[in-house]
Amino acid sequence: MRRRIPTFYMIVLLALTLTTASSLNAVRCQAPYVKPTVLRPGNVSGVVVLKIYPDDSVGLTGTFEANLEKPRWNVSIPRICINMTSRPVGGKVEQRASGFVEMPEIPDPKVEEALEKMVLDIVAKGSGNENETKWHVNANFSLPETIEVSVELSSYGNVVEKYSDINITLEVTLYYEALNMTKSDVRDIVVAWPILRGLIEAAVIQASDELIDLSIKLEDYTIGPDSATLLFEARVSGNLVEGLRRFIEKSITPSTPVTPPAPMPEIPKEAREVLEAMLSLLETRYAWVEDAEFNMTWDREDGAFVFEGYTVYGGDLGKQYKMVWTTLLRAQLTFMAGKGREDVQKLALEVYDLVTNSEFDVDELTVSMDVNLDEGYAMLNLSGLKIKPKSIPDFLSVVSLASEVMPSNRLTLVVQGSSDAKEMVEVEIPLAAEEYIAEPVAVGGRYRIEWRFKKLGAIDRLKLIKKPNTIGIIDFNYIEVKKTVDGAEYVVEIFTNSSLVEMPTFADDRLEITVSGVEGTLGALNASIPKTLVNGVIVILVDGELVKPSVKLMGESYVVYATYSHSLRKLEIVWSPPDIEITVDRREVDVGGEVEVSGILRVLGNPMAGEKVNIVVDGVRLAETVTDEEGRFSARLKLEKEGEFTVKAVYDFVDQSFESEGVMVKVVLAWYQNPVILGGMAAAIVVAIAVIVILSRRRSF
């Protein structure tokens, strides 16, 4: 793999890395599919799911893949891959992110050799509260025997006073031969440094209207026979955000000449809002960093910059996101002004109005992105974003407009009900609106309707019905699976708070579904299975391990509920007759004697713990016992009647009963229990007593 990195990319990459460190666990992205042969702009496919909650908020989940038009310039663009997951932790939000920036292939043997030797390590740690933020960064970059750079940066920011103070120590070692330099060149730099320093400091201070103060010092230097080392100390202080804004304003519409060293290059006016939007990422207005760590390294083998890190935010992260998105949308509107396509501009205005009048919840936001312009594709997965608009019809109206302006037969829209702790939402197309709303691709019962994203029409007329939450799951995803048996179609309804990874598959005795969720959280599953399909006991296997669900009969269906710890999980809802084995400690017992009955209860070879088992003798239930952790049970029976009896163990599952094979036990009379023998013995005793009495009387005479 031959690659080279233009200097421009290196500078941009390092800048972006340091400014976005707080929002960036390293899992490599996978290319979504083989590069398409035909590249068309706007050729987007995927699925967008809108979940409607009882509080009139909307959950947004999307999977997008797009064929992109290749750039027209002769510059290779890096591939960017980012994975980010948010989760609430103790009243705060923790974001973990990872990914890589893979540099494009450009055949250049010299650069390839350099990259095989290059070393880059960046470690950034941050802490703070609503009033101040502190960062400490260590970075090391080197091309052995060419250049070595060591940077230590510490920063302090006071949010209230909008003041920042950054101190930088920079040590640079230059190797003459590799850089085509001499000792004289280094001496010239040292001699000219006071002038260069003054020019740079003056330019920054003047461009920021003196809101930013910059001081750069050459503290020490060593000029050796083969290399030279320069040690710089720099301090940047002041209102950095506002100072950068002033710089942008002057770059676009300079009011006075900026010298020295030279007039600043003009920035296109339509780019101004975009640049200012990027600055809003640096503003701590509604959320702040309380703890953060970021690491970045250069992977020589793959030719990529690999990064991972975490950030713990305090405050309202949703409001912070809203501020950024609103600013970016405003920038987009400015950029679009005068560009034609009035329908596109109208859509942008509607989206801007929607964002401005909505609240956002990003506490469980998950984003993964893979963009490769050189290969002509982009992939984006988004979940966990909740939006509370001014009204649901307003939100759906914007969706409808988007389907008119940017129609796509390859993009599927799903509107689905969901739930909170008390209520759940059903979705319905009113009869009066059927002729206005585009025909659905599929209707999943009362909770899910699908369309192609093309001219959806009056989708804002959807009827949303709120009912009590009877499934016991908050924030459910709904899946409907159909199965035909002997010409009859059966529907299995599945509600889960996990994300669906693969569509469920049906077999004769089981339903398999692969799900995922944020590790450390609890997954829940509620499935309604028609009674006719089930022959046996229903259990759930989570990655092959048995989980005993709660099962109830409601109408003509079994309702199955279970919980599990979140991760990537394979769930199998399985039904099978149980295996019940019993033994007795004796096959023959005297009347009134006791027999110990023991056994084991299994399903699919798995022991069933905590289940009630009845011991039945000739159809009469005489004892009840409970299985232990190994599925074993035991009970003692006292048999009061002579004869031969069949002993069985019976297990009741909802409305079904399953019994073991019978074991015969014979109950017999002991010799001392036989009435004839007892009667003879009693008569003999009476006669003996009479004889003794008679003899005793005769002697008395």
What does this structure look like?
It is a single chain. It contains ten helices and 40 strands. The protein is α+β, with helices and mostly antiparallel strands. The chain has an 18-stranded mixed beta sheet that branches. Strands 32, 35, 36, 38, 39 and 40 form a six-stranded mixed beta sheet that branches. The protein has a five-stranded antiparallel beta sheet with strand order 21-22-25-29-28, with no helix packed on it. Helix 5 runs antiparallel to helix 6 (272-280), helix 6 (272-280) packs antiparallel against helix 7 and helix 8 packs antiparallel against helix 9. The protein starts with 6 loop residues before the first helix and ends with a helix.
Q: Taking Cα atoms only, what radius of gyration do you get, to the nearest Å?
A: 39 Å
Low-confidence stretches: 1-41, 253-265
Please describe the biggest sheet, giving its number of strands, its sense, and whether it closes into a barrel. Answer: 18 strands, mixed
What's the helical proportion of residues? 10-25%
- For the secondary structure, the number of strands is 40
Helix and strand composition category: alpha+beta
Calculate the mean pLDDT score and round it: 83
Distance between the termini: 135 Å
User: Strand fraction band?
Assistant: over 45%
Shape type: elongated
Report the total helices.
10
